[in-house]
Request: fold
Amino acid sequence: MNRRYLKSTLYAVAVFALLLFAPASQAFFVEPSSEASNPVDVIVIDPGHGGVDSGALGRGGLTEKDVVLGVAMGLRDVLRERLPEVKVLLTRENDTFIPLEERIGLANSAHADIFISIHVNAARNKKASGVETFFLSYLPTDAEAMELAEAENRVVQQKSGKSDDEVNSEVATNDLKNILHDLAQSVTHHESSALAEAIQVSMVKGTGRPDRGVKQAPFTVLEGASMPAVLVEVGFISNRREERWLKGVKVHKRIADSIAHGITEFAVEVNRRAARIKSDERAER
Ligand SMILES: [Zn+2]
Reply:
């Protein structure tokens, strides 16, 4: 059974089980406004790949891990400037390898309110170009989104040193755990989609690159996030022209600025809502 089929089946079984035991599982279907009342205090930025894992490679020699580190550092600096009261952390600040689960683990233990993983796209179609933003779902938007998630997830299996069977059975157990967790996080799901939308709109505006839209796919790095979490693909390294574009330090800054703008808009909205909920609570007392 291939992994995609297995995931869809597990998803269907999990949804069915939840519907069957609906009274006991009402907590899974909370209204977004009832939970999302925390202001944004901590943001974790995750530059994808690093160390032995170079990520996607351009024909001109550019590596994904270098581009995303440049963009992430720029994003950290501009966010610290624009949101001085917010703590901004990076999962890596240099060329080191960090397993995917550790990245989201760090965000969870830092009680992050926003998690953003930065990546560079690659496609068989050398003409593919533009920016896209993802949030977690076990049902991918389309075959292309699934293929991309599989490529970005591959590093886990490569580095574990385990056989395919061992990995598959672990993956199946984790998949079910994660699917249940994902369903429980319907609030986060809604917020992740809003965050993705804000970043995508702002990235297209700020970079002038083609808009590939907001999509969903099962990215391991987003699994188990207890905060709004997105993954951005800032351009195609497999496209010769876009690879050249991605090389520029000024471009990294421009991409960072545009992502920061989207995050700031989202954070301002979340904080406004948190303040409103707080004042409503005070009025009720
Ligand atoms: Zn990547």
